What we know:
Elements: H1 16-32, H2 38-45, H3 50-62, E1 66-68, E2 76-78, E3 87-89, E4 109-111, E5 121-125, E6 141-146, E7 155-160, E8 165-172, E9 177-180, E10 189-191, E11 194-204
Antiparallel strand pairs: 1-2, 3-4, 5-6, 6-11, 7-8, 7-11, 8-9, 9-10
Amino acid sequence: xxxxxxEHFSRSALTERQRDVFEFLREMIVSHGxxxxxxxxxxxxKINSPNGVMSHLKALEKKGLISRKPGMSRAIQLTDPPQPxxxxxxxxxxxxxxxxxxxxxxxxxxxxxxxxxxKSHCCVRVVGHGLLDDHIIEGDYLSVRRQSDCRDGxxxxxxxxxxxxxxxxxxxETRRIRLESLNRRSPSLFxxxxxxxxxxxxxxxxx
Length: 207
């Protein structure tokens, strides 16, 4: 039995073990996109009996924190799932070699959800140093909007003449395609056919 609409339970109303189980469920759902099975919960908390796990799940469901779909092994869902955070407070601009002025009371947030929000977006991780001239280093992630066409000058993730993946700016010429590095000092790549995987819309780097 789930909580009635409008009924509210805070986490402080949970027992210590219920709170631990809820946090485990929440972490699994947020990080994996789906909840653990009853068996996985039992293994994590060393609960040998499935009935012991079910008693905690029924308590969380009764208190309105989770819902379950009968007949499914991964049926646990959060009734109030956390929304992804994709905005940061903008505290100032930086110019190398000059004093940095910070607005410690800033409230304006810059939104980066365009890199992540659409279902058509995916990412690839950079391995090796082939993009170093473009200031993209090993371990960076490229946010890619999947599509099979592009306009001149857009940065693409593609395969040139079936020779391998490349990240270049795309320019269609009369009889060939010119692919240019972000760093204009690097030589252009010419191809007769380019399979476009998608547009590179951002670089994600975490230190």
